[in-house]
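== Sequence, structure tokens ==
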Amino acid sequence: MATSVRANVWILADGCFRPKSSSRLRLLVVDDNVDAATSMGMVLELLGIEHMVEFSGEGALTAVECFHPDAVLLDIGMPGMDGYEVARRLRTNPENADMTLIAVTGWSQLQDRQKTRAAGFDHHLSKLADIGALQSMLATLKPVSMTSSGSNDDERRSRDRRSATN
């Protein structure tokens, strides 16, 4: 079984993924429940959002390095590396400072929301995610600028982030 699903992307020689569109958001969906992750991917496709789906925390970290999503929809309760650890690791890299992390989880008590915030999440959505609430949240994000050839401004974006943190 494949460990990831890539929609509307080029796969380059370096193994990294570049979206085909220049104006759509890039989202990474991470959930060990294949049906839930794939279903969310279908919803994002209908909303016109570039996306990639991963089914593990380790896969998420690898995908972020190449796909450079604008936001990550991240399940918390995954085996192996859970969503909290993925968020903490992503937040330790200054290049991910502008990335929006959205917890999508069945755990929605006040202490759960506090725990996601402490791990570095920007938002917390309860499963089954309210698509209207997700759309409203995503409407506040801006996609990374890209050229029509598919090569993007990731190097410039990384430089700009490093400059901003210095």
Q: What stands out?
A: Confidence is low (pLDDT under 50) at residues 145-166.
